[in-house]
Amino acid sequence: NQSWREIRRQLTYKCAWYGKRLVIVNPWKTSQLCASCGFDDGKHELSLRKWTCPNCGENHDRDINAAKNILAVTA
Ligand SMILES: [Zn+2]
Asked: For residue 34, how far is its CA from the centre of ligand 1 (angstroms)?
């Protein structure tokens, strides 16, 4: 947690310095919500790298799905 806090502190002042917008995203559920339909598939163990949404049938790569969810809340 300490190193994440330091990274966040540095990003905050560097973004301010260069006039960039820094968006802090709560990572809660970013890897368990389907980026296509929003279905909450519940907790996925870290070892689970791919999953299929039982609601819409979309096949997900864990990290790409999470990236889409993060992008959606920052847009
Ligand atoms: Zn879905």
From this structure: 5
